[in-house]
Every structure is written in C-alpha cells, then in structure tokens.
Amino acid sequence: MSDMLETFVRKGIENEIKTNYPHIQHPAGMYAKVVQVKTDNEKYVYTLKILDKTLNVDNDFPEIPNVKSSIRAQKEDIVAVLLLYGGSDVFVLGRCER
Question: Is the dihedral of CA 21, 27, 28, 33 positive or negative?
C-alpha cells in the first residue's frame, strides 16, 4: 500500500514541476561548446551546443544560434552559459579553462 501512495505522490510532484516549474528541470547555468563564431559590429554572435556536466553533448538541447555577447571566444571553446528562469535567452558568462 505504501508503494502505491509513494508512486502517486511522486507522479503528482513530477506533474506539478513539469506544469508550473519547467525551469527547474534543468540547471540554469551550463557548459556549451562554441560551434560557430561571427562578428556583428563590436559583438560576437555564436552558435552554441549545450554540454552536460562531463562536457559531452547534451542531446536534450538543440544547437542554439544567434547568441550575442561581448565576451570573446573561439570555435571549439567551452563557455559557461546562463538561461534565466528556464527561458530561451542564453547569456555567455565566460570561457571555461578545463
């Protein structure tokens, strides 16, 4: 009986998170690999691929194009990025030396 109750509560919590708090399903700060770099006036425009914590490509995320930043990075660099409140706006925090 307790297994059924635990399963019921767990499913309820998972559904509540998916419905009302989708931004907590993934961390706000992540690693990304620079796939492409362009310049636009004094800004850099990147195409990024999100990585997991072991720096492998995270296939849960598509490539993210048109990420503008004043921070300079080169193709194949690893950068730290931030997605505020689970949104789709990506902010480059800086290059990661690992």
Answer: negative
Mean pLDDT of the chain: 89
Residue 49 corresponds to which tokens in the numbers above?
Answer: 């691929």
Report CA-CA distances (Å) from 4 to 1, 11, 13, 18, 23.
5, 11, 14, 21, 28
How does DSSP classify residue 13? H
Q: What pLDDT is stored for residue 77 in this prediction?
A: 96
Question: Per-residue pLDDT tens for 39-74?
Answer: 988 899 999 999 998 999 999 889 999 999 999 999
Phi, psi angle pair for 59, to nearest 5°: -75, 0
Determine how many CB atoms are found less than 10 A away from the CB of residue 33: 20
32, 49 Cβ separation under 8 angstroms: yes
